[in-house]
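Milestone M4 deliverable, item 7.
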Amino acid sequence: MGGFWLEKEVVKDVSLWVTRCSVLSSFGAHLILALFASIRRREDSAVRRFPVWLAYQVTHLASKLAIGKLYLDSPSSSKQLFAFWVPFVLLHLGLADNISAYSLEDNVLSWRQGVEMVLLLFVALIGAYNQRFMSCDRALCTAFVMIFFLGSYKYVERIWALRLAGFARIRSSYKGMMTRRFSLDQDENAEDRNAELDDYDALRDAHGLFGVSLGAFADYSVKLQEKPEHDPFKTWYSYRSDVVKMVEMQLSLMYDIMYTKAAVIHTWPGYIIRLASPPLTLTALLLFFLHSKDGMGGIDITITYALLIGTFLLDVRWLLRALGSSWTYAFLQDTTRCELLKKTLCCRRGCWYGLRRFVLCLDPSRLWRQGECSHRLWSRTMGQHNLLGECTDGTPMSKIGWDDNSKTKSAGVGSLVEELCADIWPHIFHAYILRRVPEKDMGPMPPQASDRRRSFSEERRFGAEFDELVITWHIATDIFLLGRTETEQDEHCDTFQKIKALSDYMMFLVAKRPEMLPGLKLHSHYEETRVALEGIKSRCNGCTDSQKLADELGKMQHSYSGLLTNKVLRDAVIYAKLLKKLCLAEHVYQEWSTIFGDVVFEVIISRDDEMKDELERRLLILVPKFKNYARPSDGRVRVGWPLEEVLRNFVLQSWVRLLVFGSIRCSRDSHAKQLGCGGELTTILWILAEHKDIINVTKFTKD
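Output delivered:
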């Protein structure tokens, strides 16, 4: 039997090019990470994040391949520069300063990676030593030692950053962190305290109050550094928009802790190594430039120059980035004891601020940024998914941005956050569940905390099947909204758009990101309801869009067997009909039991009190406002409510309640994972709730 054999020279050439390609691939992937890894902070598109993910994988695979191959290769004069590339490969394994982990699981596996790091450092050193090309060349040996030191340090630094990013380590490292507002430290007069925060001041406050977010993610209590009798402004804001902006930037800082090297960069060793890196790399470049190139291949020399020059430029970038970072401002605030020196360094006309402005001027991304701190704001988009639309015209999932709405700009994310903060702000706190017992040294529990604890049993009524409630109310909302006349829809356009955006957003979470909601992750509820809706569509001729399907559902009665087999659709139709009854006529009073019983009987032809009680219980969970109707003092309730009141008090506030509850009860791991994919509105609301003690305002924006 014949075989396929290559000549020895061919095998040798292939081996050489495998090493070269692996080093170049590692370097190219490292550059991609250095330039684009930060887009994960705001980008929630998997397609756009794919190059970063691919570069992350290539960096690890190509670097390990290069080190392993060098270790196994026999000494050769044609490979004398290969050993000099080893330190650069270690630099690549240490990753760029703007990324230490791609996923939250990387932090969990950091001990395994620590063992792997020790083995790779040993293999790299032995492999370079085996080539013995530096034994009689002190200049090149010196350059090798300098770069090897930098590469080893950056690799160890990355592994340590992974360790510091774990929740347990955050808890032990930051538990004693004091919290205060930095933006008040350099105010020249008291009037500044009542002004709205700009992005820069919001970022400074995000650092000062960062302990609140750290405590939320790591699950420990935080005591605010406040002395109301001396300074009532220390932890209170004038406008809710300031708090929202500050929370956005806090989550960006949380991203830095969990997915970048920020925790190790902004320390004395971190600053020292970044100050030393450019001179050391430049020295190595000069030593190689002056070194004789006899016996070296031209392609190998070119690759070496590319590695040296590229590493030097990146070192300069990381140095400027570190010194101009707001993390350096927080570091100076925490480590500088002299108040005069602190003000000289950190005020708006101080040394650090001037350095920061200089660094920002060198950043080409400033050409398309809206502000110097805008990159620290979350993606500011909300996913949208409509179940009726999917079943009729196959409407794909979409997004709305901060100001998206061609007519009124009323249903953009910014407007919805304004709605949450300005009109329904108490929901963020009344729905807040106290999950931690206060520390013994924290003093007695405040009255607000006791109230939240008493509300715990009430909030638990949502149950494990939270997604089922969302689907039910989503369909009921669509049936009710699409059943209104065009005149009514135009007249109440703002409220309609906000309800629609929140409803479709919650449905998007159920369908696309169920991990961002509490309860059991049962996709079967969604699939069963979708199949039932498609069955109804197929039986009803002419259901070509969501409007017609909603009309058919609104007309459904007990005679339609499709509703009897799906509890979600049955409940949704009952609740939609009940909402419709509230708007029948002005000032009509009826018995609640009669109203609710008639609606239930119309759909399921049953007078079963047990079933009716269960439906009523689920309704009161979704819409607590109905309590006033279910248990009135005189037994009679008003039916003829204005449409705007029904939309706001019964529909919109119910969606806000579901959204806030889902945000607070979502797991910390899910919030943390989503930070690496652009963030989510639910995480913003959760951290807003964690800042409850610093919020006592009545406006969203300044008049």
